[in-house]
Amino acid sequence: MKIVYTCFCTDVIHDGHLNIIKNARKLGKVIVGALSDEALIRYNKFPTLSLKERIKLYEGIAGVDQVVIQNDMLYDEIITRVHPDYVLHGDNWKTGPESILRNNVIALLSKWGGELVEIPYTINENVKKIDSQLREKLAMPEYRRKRLRQLINLSPIVKAIEAHSGLTGLIAEKTVVEENGKLDQFDAMWVSSLCDSTAKGKPDIELVDMSSRLRTIDDIMEVTTKPIILDGDTGGLAEHFIYNIRTLERMGVSAIIIEDKKGLKKNSLFGTDVEQTQDSIESFSAKIAAGKRAQLTDDFMIIARIESLILERGMEDALNRAFAFVAAGADGIMIHSRKKDPDEIFEFCDTFRKKNIHTPLVVVPTSYNSVTEKELAAHGINLVIYANQLTRSAFPAMVQTAQDILKYHRAKEVDSRLMPIKEIISLIDEI
Ligand code: SPV
Ligand code: MG
């Protein structure tokens, strides 16, 4: 009997999947691949069911003979393992980022033998409704909130990019690239105080108040599903911090990062050029502990950010603080630096990891930007935040456009640099 293989990466079975199985059945024994969690998260299909539950779901479909796990989004390993006579897929992967997976399958089948069978992708009201319900489910607070912890457990390194509006949120949500035959994308969003303030034309000194920050988060949440990490600056007064923790948890934010400074906060990248006051270990630990006591779910994370290297207080101070803040209940440590190279970050992380292998470590490589994600992961870092690059790329482009329109007294000269009108008016999907 011929072997037919098809890979599923869904939490809900709809007419499209049933149609694939019906067609597969006609060709032989049907083996369904359940894509692993690790592969799914790079594929923009964050699972709401566990792998075990997905396997059970697929096994329950009439006509499925066997379910196997496909560990990688590329088919190399699975094709050598299953040796299918046919690989079945909907024809929707002929275009868009998924076409690289199609090319991968075609190349493998020409090497190992076998045929790719593509059937028309089922698109009807029921399929559309299920797809949109699945997206909505991922945006619900209970799913979104826990997703950061899930990602930290699943990924060698979690990648967050700043978002400060619905539009930048959409960029973080939807940008997918193809590299070496694989798809990649950001895992999470960082609501930076610098970029949120800058977008409002205000300095980054905790002037933009929490109500306004929550409004920004809500704008982002309305159009995205990925987890949100809030830059909580100093966290403010402990008495206020505990109320904000409850609000953020209720909204579905995954984490807040607060820095061990007090008084008038200035942006860390000023370093010692401006006056900045570091909070004491005791006082900041008390704030963390109060936040942890206020927290209602196990999902939410309070991450302590250490400013000792920024303020040139030394490695020992930074490490002492890290261990104290973890003891106070911090769910993670962010270590910040404004050096051009990552040496002090690596030294901190390597020393920290000798005593603590589990607590997530977070970094923001704005100044030491030559470091790669792979290098960071090799030093035990779990989360990398690209904190301001979207804002910094948009700003000069907008200034240049404004200047050129003034210079030429018309907009023709700038037009070739602009997004076509057709694209901008259809950029945002309508429900
Ligand atoms: C932010 O993005 O607002 C940060 C990171 O806090 S940094 O600007 O490097 O301080
Ligand atoms: Mg900030």
Structure description:
With 431 residues, this protein is of the alpha/beta class. The protein folds into 3 domains: 129 residues, 3-Layer(aba) Sandwich (Rossmann fold), CATH 3.40.50.620; 248 residues, Phosphoenolpyruvate-binding domains (TIM Barrel), CATH 3.20.20; 33 residues, no CATH class. 45% of the residues lie in helices and 17% in strands. The protein contains 17 helices and 17 strands. The strands form 4 sheets. The chain has an 8-stranded parallel beta barrel, surrounded by 9 helices. Strands 3-2-1-4-5 form a 5-stranded parallel sheet, with helices on both faces. Strands 7-8 form a two-stranded antiparallel ribbon. The protein is globular and about 75 Å long. The two termini are 45 Å apart. The structure holds sulfopyruvate (SPV) and magnesium ion. Magnesium ion binds next to helix 9.
Element layout with pairings:
Blueprint: E1 3-8, H1 15-27, E2 29-35, H2 37-42, H3 51-59, E3 66-70, H4 76-82, E4 86-90, H5 99-112, E5 115-119, H6 125-139, H7 141-154, E6 158-162, H8 166-174, E7 176-179, E8 182-185, E9 188-191, H9 193-199, H10 210-223, E10 228-231, H11 238-251, E11 255-259, E12 261-262, E13 277-278, H12 281-294, E14 301-306, H13 315-327, E15 332-335, H14 343-355, E16 361-363, H15 373-378, E17 383-386, H16 389-408, H17 421-425
Parallel strand pairs: 1-2, 1-4, 2-3, 4-5, 6-9, 6-17, 9-10, 10-11, 11-14, 14-15, 15-16, 16-17
Antiparallel strand pairs: 7-8, 12-13
The structure holds sulfopyruvate and magnesium ion.
Sulfopyruvate (SPV) binds near residues 192 and 268.
